[in-house]
Amino acid sequence: MFSAEYLALLYSALMALAIIVYAVLDGYDLGVGILLPGNNKPSADTMIASIGPFWDANETWLVLAVGLALIAFPTAHSIILQALYLPIAFMLLGLILRGVAFDFRAKAKTRYRQTWDRCFKLGSLITAFTQGYMLGLYVMSFEHSLASHLFATLSGVGVIAAYTLIGAGWLIMKCEGEIQNSAIRWCRLSNLIALLGVLAVSVVNPLINAYVQTRWFGTEISLLLLPLPLICMVLFVIQDRVLVKLNDNTSHGCWLPFAITVMIFLLCFFGLVYSFFPYVVPGTLTIFEALADPSALTFMLYGVVLVVPAIIGYTLFSYRVFWGKTQDLSYY
Amino acid sequence: MLDTLLLSRIQFAANISFHILFPTITIALAWFLVFFKFRYDRTGEAVWLRAYRFWVKIFALTFALGVVSGITMSFQFGTNWPGFMERIGNIAGPLLGYEVLTAFFMEATFLGIMLFGMKRVSPRLHTFATLIVAIGTTLSAFWILSLNSWLQTPTGYTLVDGVFYPKDWFEIIFNPSFGYRFFHMLLASALTASFLMAGISAYRLLKEDHKHAPKLTLKVSLTVAALLAPMQMFVGDLHGLNTFEHQPQKVAAMEGVWETEQGAPLLLFAIPDEQQRTNHFEIAIPKLASLILTHEAEGEIKGLNEFKGEHPPVKPVFFGFRIMVGIGVLMILVALVTRYTLWKHSTLPTWQLKALVVMTFSGWIATLAGWYVTEIGRQPFMVSGLVKIEELVTNVPSEHVLLTLIGYLTLYAVLLAAYIKTLFYTARNAVQVEEYQTTPVQGGQYV
C-alpha cells in the first residue's frame, strides 16, 4: 500500500498526462474540424481522412482525464463539474455533433453531406471554445463576475486559436498541394493569435491571482522558471519563420510546425500546472485534501501500471500504420 | 413542480436510454464482423468480405453514436449526481476506471485500423484488430454491468459515515447478480443485433437486391436468433430467480403482488393502482407466479405492502416487464418460424420478409423495457436498500438542468431519426453500389 501523499502526486501526474495528451491529440483533430471548408467537398474529404483513424481514440483521453479526477479526487470533481455545469453541457453537445457528423457525412445522402460538414465544423468550434472558457473560469477560481467571464471568453478564443494552430500543423504534415498551402496560411494566422492569447493570459493571470503571483515571482525556484515563458515566445517566432520558409518549399520539414506547436502546448501546460500546484480546485482544495480512499486507488494502480504502457504502445502502432501522407478514406 | 431532482432524473433517464441503444447493437455486431472476416480469411469467398464491408459501415456509425452519448454519461455523474461519486466513488471509480483503461482505448484505437487499415496491414492483423474491437466492446459491458449489478446487490464493502469503502474487490466485481445480468445483457445484444441484421437484410431482399450477401447475412442472423432467443428466456428466468432472492420488492412490482401470498397467480394483464394498492382488470393464471419463482405451487411471494415507502413505482415496472417478455416471446416465434422456412425452402415468402423488417428494432424495445424494469425496480434507491437517489443530486439551479435537458432531448431526437434513416438509406444504396466484384481482395494489395 502506498502512502496517501504519494498516491495524490501520482494520480495528479497521471491526470496531467491525460489532459496534455488530450489537448495535443484531440486538439489537432478539433483544429482540423475548425478549418474544415463548408462547401469545397474534395478537400474536406482529404482533411477528414487525415484524422479518421484517430479522432475516436484521441477523445478517449478526455474520458480518462475526467475519469481520473472522478476516481482520485471525487470532491474536487464534483465541485468543478457543478461549477461548470452549463459550459460542460455545451461542450458535450459540441462533442456529440462533431462525433456523429464524422460518420453521418460519409453515409448520408449527398445533399445532406454539406449540412453534416457544417455540423462537424460547428461542433469542433463549440468544443474548443467551451474548453477554453472552462479553463478561463478555472483559472479565475470559478468567480462569477463580469471580469472573469470576459477573461473566460478571451481564453475560449485562445483555445480556438491554439487548436487551429495545431490542426493546421497536422495538415501541413499530413497533406499536400492546395490543402497544405492553405494550412500554412492558417497556421501563420493562428500562430499570431495564439501568441497574443498566451501573452494576455501570462500577464493577466499573476495580476489577478495572488497565489499565482507568488508562485512565479515570490519563491527561489521561480527565478529558474522565468525563462520558460521566454522560450515559449521564441518558439512562436521560430514557428513564423519556419512557415515562411515552408511557403517557398514544402518538401523539407513539413513536420516542424506540428512539433513546435506541441512544444508550445507543453510549456503553456507546464506553466499552468506550476501556477496552481498543489491545488486541484484553485484556492480551495489541494490534491492532498481531495484524495479518495487510498486502498481503492491502490487497486486501480495495478491496472494503470499494466495497461498504460500497452495503451501508449498500440497508440504508437496505430500512428505507424497510418504514417505518411493521407490517402483517401475508404472502409477497406 | 419541476425541481432539480426530478429534472436530473429525467435527464439521466433520457441519456441512459439513448446511450444503451448503441452498445446494445455494437457489442454483438462486433462478433458478427469477426465471424464474417474470419470466414473470408478461411474461404477467400468474396461474399463474406461484402457482408463485412456492408456491416462494418453500420457498425462504425452505431459505435460513434455510442461513444458520444457515453461521454455525456461520464460527465453526468459529476454535473448532476455529485453525491454519487462522493459516497460511492471508492467503489464505482475503479470499476469505471478499469473500463476506460482496459476497454475504451483498445476499442477506439483498433477501430481505426479495423475501419481504415485493411489495405495497410496484413489480413491476419486486420482480423486481429476486428477481434480486439469485439473483445473491447464485451469488456466494456463487463465493467459497466459489474458496477450496475453492484448497485443492485452490493457486497464486499464497508460503510463508514455514509461513504462506501472497498473491502474485497473480487466480491465487488463478481457480486451476486453480476453473472445473470452480464449474460442477460450479452444475449440481449446478440438478439438486438441479429434482428437488426435480419431486418435490414430482408429489406434489401424486398428491394430486389439479388446479390448473395443479403441472403447470407439473413441466414446467419436468423440462425443466431433462433439459437439464442430461447436461451435468453432461460437466462432471463434464472435472472428473475436471483432478483427474487435479493430484491423481492422489485419482483413484487413486476408481478403486481400487493399482499404477501402463497400460490400467487401469474398476471397476464392488469392495471396496478398504487393509490388503492390493488390491481384492476386482472387476467391471471392461478398459482403460476409462485410456481415459476419458488418452484412450488404454494410458494410464498412477498407483497408490496411489506415494503411501503421502500418499493419502486409499480406501473412502469409491471408494464415494462410485460413488454420485455412479450417482445421476447415474439422474437422466439419469429426466429423459429423464419429459420425453419429458410431451411425448408431456402428462401422466405414476402410476408415473412416484411415481418422481419417490422421487427428490425424489436431488440431495442425489449432491451429498453428490460432496463426500465431493472433500474426503476431499484427505486427509490441508488444502492439497493442503502442510499436513496434524492441524497445524491446536484444543487445547480433547476433552470440550468431544464435548459440542458431540452438541448439533449432535441439533439437525441434528431440523431435517432437520422440514424434510422441512414440505416435504410445505406441498405437501399447497397442495391445499386455494392456490385458483385467477383475478384476477392488479392494478397498483393495488402501492404
Automatic annotation (TrEMBL), chain A:
The chain crosses the membrane at residues 6-25, 79-101, 122-140, 146-172, 192-212, 224-243, 255-277, 297-317. InterPro entries: Cyt-d_oxidase_su2 (IPR003317). The keyword tRNA processing does not apply. Its main location: membrane. Keywords: Cell membrane, Membrane, Transmembrane, Transmembrane helix. It is found in: Cell membrane. It comes from the Bacteria. Belongs to the cytochrome ubiquinol oxidase subunit 2 family. This is Cytochrome d ubiquinol oxidase subunit II. It comes from Pseudoalteromonas viridis. The lineage of its organism: Bacteria, Pseudomonadati, Pseudomonadota, Gammaproteobacteria, Alteromonadales.
UniProtKB/TrEMBL annotation, chain B:
InterPro entries: Cyt-d_ubiquinol_oxidase_su_1. GO terms for biological process: aerobic electron transport chain. One of its GO terms (molecular function) is oxidoreductase activity, acting on diphenols and related substances as donors, oxygen as acceptor. It is a multi-pass membrane protein. The keyword Transport applies. GO terms for cellular component: cytochrome complex; plasma membrane. It is found in: Cell inner membrane; Cell membrane. Its main location: membrane. Belongs to the cytochrome ubiquinol oxidase subunit 1 family. PANTHER family: CYTOCHROME BD MENAQUINOL OXIDASE SUBUNIT I-RELATED, CYTOCHROME D UBIQUINOL OXIDASE. This is Cytochrome ubiquinol oxidase subunit I. It comes from Pseudoalteromonas rubra.
